[in-house]
Amino acid sequence: MNFTCIRVEGGLIPADILASIGAGEAPGQQARDFGLPQNRRLTDEIAAAWSDARAFWQALQRSLLRLPADDPATTPTREQWILPLLRTLGYEDITYMSRAAQIAGQTYAISHRAGSAEDAPPVHVVGFRADLDRRPPSGRPRLSPHALVQEYLNRSEHLWGIVTNGRVLRILRDSTRLTRLAYIEFDLEQMLAAEKFNDFALLYRLVHRTRLPRSLAEAPQCLLE
């Protein structure tokens, strides 16, 4: 199956394994692996999440039309789109980071973490009009959103993290031992605009909270590994 809204960089997941995950044939792809009750089918849960995602997306688009052109749209991107979407993907206790993390004198203003635990994976959500690969015009933070999360992963004990501007969502991995950057990218804008349900189903199977570690201790054994 050709997933036009999904791109894998750095050989993070081989194409055959990606196809196996999409088909629900890989390990960890049963309903119970996603924390669902015994009487709940995973396909039904994905379909319900898709319906919710489309509603969240439409609400965001209406809000964007009312914003000034120079507004980065950070609040509506978070509150109307990404946080509701992540909650449908099992991130029930996603937590806002009121203070920037610090490592060796450097600060990392990452917006959220995946859970309430101090060592939950980082989740950085910026505005819809922000570029993941460019530093803000203000010069703060000192790095682009992608580079900020990547450097944080490389300099901390975390293996996995998420960065998104609502148009694109990326799962990043610590790349200190790799020869190039490694991440999985989901084009949310194309996915929703073109109604690519199969791509969304794969996103569900790869981004769901049960795929990422609950804590640093669990990171080497998490399903993404």
Molecular structure report:
- It contains 6 helices and 9 strands, in the order βαααβββββαβββαα.
- The longest helix has 25 residues, at 42-66.
- The model has no long low-confidence stretch (mean pLDDT 93).
- It has helices spanning 15-22, 42-66, 74-88, 145-155, 188-193, 197-207, and strands at residues 6-9, 95-96, 101-103, 106-108, 112-113, 122-125, 160-164, 168-173, 183-187.
- α2 (42-66) runs antiparallel to α3 (74-88) and α2 packs across α6 (197-207).
- The chain is α+β, with helices and mostly antiparallel strands and 225 residues long.
- β3 (101-103) and β4 (106-108) form a beta hairpin.
- The strands form 2 sheets. It has a 7-stranded mixed beta sheet with strand order 1-9-8-7-6-5-2, sandwiched between helices. Strands 3-4 form a two-stranded antiparallel sheet.
- The protein has one domain.
- Helix content is 34%, strand content 15%.
